Amino acid sequence: MSALQNPLAYQPDVLGEDYEQLKLSFANDYEGEVCATLIRKKATQTTTKAVLYIHGFIDYFFQTEMAEQFNQHGYDFYALDLRKYGRSRLSHQNYYNVRDLREYDDEITQALEIIGAEGHLSVVLAGHSTGGLITTLYAAHHPQHPLIKALWANSPFYDFNMHPIKRKLGVPQLSRLAKHFPDLKFPSELNKWYVPSLHQSEHGEWNFDLQWKQPSYSMVRISFVRAIHEAQKEIHCGGLKLSVPALIMHSHQTLNPKKWGVAAQTSDVILDVKDIEKQAKNLQGDICVETIQNGLHDLVLSAPDVRAEVYTKLFQWLEQKKI
Question: Taking burial as the number of CB atoms within 10 A of a residue's CB, which of 32, 75, 181, 185 is the most buried?
């Protein structure tokens, strides 16, 4: 489907006033019918600048403060709920099921086409965690894209957070097995305190759908492991080049708390920040890496003073780069 050949029938979004959504349709995949959802919040003043945000694993777009920050700084805000996530998951689909991260290229490409058709000349491509990996690869694979002018990666999933032996030997074995048995499941080992540190029903300040961003996810399909492993290899080899400036942010520490406490509120409990920093150095191009003291895995969901630092550094960087 070409965005330029069809009327854009935006509908009111679940986030309420000023948020709109547009359903995007694609060819069937191994589970059948596929769609994605483009969410939009326009700035109060007409602008040719926009941001396109991609969420992480077991996630969807709900970070309204981030959208409003971009609006206040003169950007129209767009976000995608990828296929099989959040607003886009259909009843016959397994949540988050993917076999190759390039499956998401279709919705990113179509979203950018729509953003361009709506009068924008430049786009900041932004992604969190798995979305940070997806957007890094998309920007690298489309070096001549006329709209993409910058990349902002918020705690990108550049490596698996696990024991080095398991990462070196176990992940490749699972990846090979996934070629033949993609739906086999493997323990996710995700820290159980992450969502409780965020949701207002427990220890956090944010209200989000606990079906779309689930409190626990004990088992993951090995097809996801393979998709991530194959994508990360492009970064690990040191040959991935970005033609636009990139800002890569991460917390100052990774901890793995076994019980509730301050660690869950002041650290990345999902990814190893040392891995993010190490792999960011493998990227070629204009790369800036920023460490955020006491940041959570999703930096824009951190404590108020922490996320204020995130936005200050982000918009200072964008102003410096004239984007």
Answer: 75
Residue (of 89, 107, 119) closest to 38 by Cα position: 107
Question: Which residue range(s) make up the domain with 208?
Answer: 3-320
Coil, strand or helix at 32: strand
| Angle between the N-to-C axes of helices 222-236 and 273-280, in degrees from 0 to 180, rounded to the nearest 10 | 40
- One digit per residue, pLDDT tens: the chain, 323 residues? 344 545 689 999 999 989 999 999 999 999 999 999 999 999 999 999 999 999 999 999 999 999 999 999 999 999 999 999 999 999 999 999 999 999 999 999 999 999 999 999 999 999 999 999 999 999 999 999 999 999 999 999 999 999 888 889 999 999 999 999 999 998 988 999 999 999 999 999 999 999 999 998 989 999 999 999 999 999 999 989 999 999 999 999 999 998 999 999 999 999 999 999 999 999 999 999 999 999 999 999 999 999 999 999 999 999 999 99
The total domain count for the chain is: 1
pTM of the model: 0.96
CATH number at residue 149: 3.40.50.1820
Residue 17: both structure tokens together: 């006033």
The whole-angstrom separation of Cα 116 and Cα 98 is 27
